Amino acid sequence: MINNDNDRVVFFDIDGTLLDTSNFAETARKAAIGLMVDNGLPLDKDEAYGVLKTIIREKGSNYNKHFNILTQVVLGHEDPMLVALGMVTYHNVKMALLRPFAETIDTLIYLKSRGYRLAVISNGITIKQWEKLVRLNVYSFFDAVITSEEVGKEKPDNLIYDVALRKMRGNPEKSVMIGNKLKEDGLGAVNAGMSAILVNSDVTEEDREFIKKNKLDIKIIENIGDVDTIL
Amino acid sequence: MINNDNDRVVFFDIDGTLLDTSNFAETARKAAIGLMVDNGLPLDKDEAYGVLKTIIREKGSNYNKHFNILTQVVLGHEDPMLVALGMVTYHNVKMALLRPFAETIDTLIYLKSRGYRLAVISNGITIKQWEKLVRLNVYSFFDAVITSEEVGKEKPDNLIYDVALRKMRGNPEKSVMIGNKLKEDGLGAVNAGMSAILVNSDVTEEDREFIKKNKLDIKIIENIGDVDTIL
To answer: Could you tell me if B137 and B222 lie in one domain?
Structure first.
């Protein structure tokens, strides 16, 4: 029974789609900065947070030595105690806040019960993305995670969608991308011949007009729980 | 008042000395292996643990891709889901078990009240060692962490002890190394002109004879709480 359907794949983005990341990194970074300043980093907290944000902008958010550079910039040398304090605090707060949206699990169960196979397409590092699925305890729902690290191209590049469809043996016409970004998730998917559903997106009125005028198969819903109104 | 005493330094080893690491890594690794096997790693748990131990022996315990290699060896390719599952489980169990010996904190308070300054001398990576002190919430007791990473030589090499004494401006004759290993902590310290105290050590009767015959200033106690019988 499932076999007839197994070219129907729902691909998910993770951050902001399955996983509630609103204010997540900011809260964790501010907690880390707070303890670093309390333990001797000689700036006030707002200044220190500003310096950290500049470093993150320059190095990218996947870089893992933001706090090392922060102490180098402020003190002229790396301070391993402050770096360790920042890293542990950031990590602990992030883990404490890591959670799926309220209706994520119900939606995954619903899609499986409808015979879809599930996978993730993500701009990021493969093992890190699986780590999130493991920590959320939803890894068993997914057959594959396709990442920009693996493919060498980021969403919305066609290659990452093509690799994902091939890997899952998905029929693009019967497959759907669910994400929160119009360009990466929406346009990327329709360019690959799939349809798309946007959740928690910040699409503007102009974006909606653009989608309508070009007859793009992109639907916009408020909440991941509303996926059952479409699929 | 403290100033007269500030060339008196007590240096500590971390693992097995401040921190109860008995069966710690083994428990965490077995939990990780258990979940990896339950989720599809095609070996039985004892076999898989045996393969992991071989990898750790070959690569060293500070290497951070043991689980990647385990999946490569067993499956012929890296399986990022199983790697993520192993890493998260290992990390979570290790963090859950991370704790100081019962009398560690009392002993640190006692030594500070006696006017000693405290530091760590450790074979390891500087920020990782500070991370342990941060997670145990004892980092405020320590003025410095001197590591083999920083010095380029491991205990019992004289250089790491010399760098530590210089960095702390410690008088070797008034300073003490507290650790759990005769060679690394005991002999290393006395060769640098300091005395040493061994706790939780597995010194044999022969070791005790050797210490006595050579009149080495190495004392052996059962429990870190007994430091107050010596200092």
So the answer is: yes
Domain boundary among B97, B127, B145: B97
Show the domain range for B152.
Answer: 2-20+100-229
Domain CATH number, residue A53: 1.10.150.520
DSSP string spanning chain A?
-HHHHTT-EEEE--BTTTB--TTHHHHHHHHHHHHHHHTT-SS-HHHHHHHHHHHHHHH-TT-S-HHHHHHHHHHSS--HHHHHHHHHHHHHHHHHH--B-TTHHHHHHHHHHTT-EEEEEESS-HHHHHHHHHHTT-GGGEEEEEEHHHHSS-TT-HHHHHHHHHHHT--GGG-EEEES-IIIIIIHHHHTT-EEEEES----HHHHHHHHHTT--EEEESSGGGGGGT-
pLDDT value for B213 = 97
* Domain co-membership, A148 together with A209: yes
Q: What is the pLDDT of residues B54-107, one digit of tens each?
A: 999 999 887 889 999 999 999 999 999 999 999 999 999 988 888 899 899 999
At which of B97, B114, B149 does a domain end? B97
Instruction: Collect all residues of chain A within an 8 Å Cβ-Cβ radius of residue B128.
Output: 84
Say if residue A44 is in the same domain as residue A104: no
Of A84, A128, A139, the CB nearest to B81: A139
What CATH number is associated with residue B16?
3.40.50.1000
CB contact under 8 A, B134 and A88: yes
Q: Say whether residue B200 is in contact with chain A using an 8 A CB cutoff.
A: no
Q: How many domains does chain A have?
A: 2
Is A182 found in the same domain as A82?
no
Give which of B81, B87, B93 to mutate to test A binding, by max A Cβ within 10 Å. B81
Which among B88, B126, B131 is the nearest to A88, CB-wise?
B131
Query: A210 to chain B, minimum CA–CA distance in Å?
Result: 38
Nearest to A139 among B85, B130, B140 (CB): B85
**pLDDT (average), residues A172-198:** 97
pLDDT at A151 over 90: yes
